[in-house]
Amino acid sequence: MDKNLQDLLNQPAExxxxxxxxxxxxxxxxxxxADDVGAVMFNSEQEDCIGVWPEEAMAKLWCxxxxxxxxxxxxxxxxxxxxxxxxxxxxxxxxxxxxxxNDEGLVIEPWELAERLG
Length: 118
Hints:
alpha+beta; Trna Endonuclease, Chain: A, domain 1; 4-stranded mixed β-sheet; 5 helices
């Protein structure tokens, strides 16, 4: 793994969140994992979550073992704000920001991410 990427993933969850916001605003897209059925869900403390990353390479790190059949999928900020945020809110799905190798990351509500991106 790239040293810069490893250093970033070793940062505290709040710093990873700020990095995500800056990169997503800059590139106007974020990444999730998807398979043939749709978006891949994570479970965090009895909450269903969708993982988000600012770059394809970071999301691709998760495409191993049980998720080897998954692929990173880009979503534009516009589409995220218009379609994904309301859909996740309706389905009561939270957002897991750049989980580390222990599946740990900041869990936020979709509207919180939308507020920072909008």
